[in-house]
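DM between two lab members

TW: hey, do you still have the Riboflavin synthase entry open?
JB: yeah, one sec
JB: this one, 198 aa:
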Amino acid sequence: MFTGIIEATGKVEKIDKNESNIDFVLSCPFTHELKIDQSLAHNGCCLTVVEINNDTYKVTAINETLEKTNLGFWDVGTEVNLERCLKFEGRLDGHVVQGHVDKTGTVESIEDQNGSYFITINYEESVEYTTVPQGSITVNGTSLTVAESGKNQFSVAIIPYTWEFTNMKHLKKGDVVNLEFDIIGKYVAKLLKKQNVI
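TW: and the structure you got?
JB:
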């Protein structure tokens, strides 16, 4: 379980194809604190640390993960948003994030609004996933508040701190991003679908 508050960014150091899977070797500021079998969200996708070697660690993405996320677009040098799993002893600053990416979206536009940034993202139509204004959405693992919500599209406003501290600053029109929709909204949509309301 995560909160969507990014701890740091990491860098992809090496990529190895392993049959249908891909092994990613990354470096990050807290590598020395990681442990084997630890869960770590990478752009919002929960992956297990399988190896640690000095200042780098390895995670493996299986084919299903590669099909649902933007991990297949990573290159050596890609900057990745990182968050370790939640400890139930502090404040929940973001929202409840599972680290299970629902689908990917595409950046439609990025507007510089004199210090803040307004990003609009499109996603493939689905009755199971929706957004509401002032609701929560996770983009590349970052907990954000929906500013505007439309059919298969939403916009978020990014404050300067989030822009600089995460990999948001590298986004450009057409980029593919990982999306995890709010868990409460997903349950409501599922119940309504079961009752043939939607």
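TW: got it. The chain has two domains: 8-84, 103-195. The first helix runs from residue 63 to 68.
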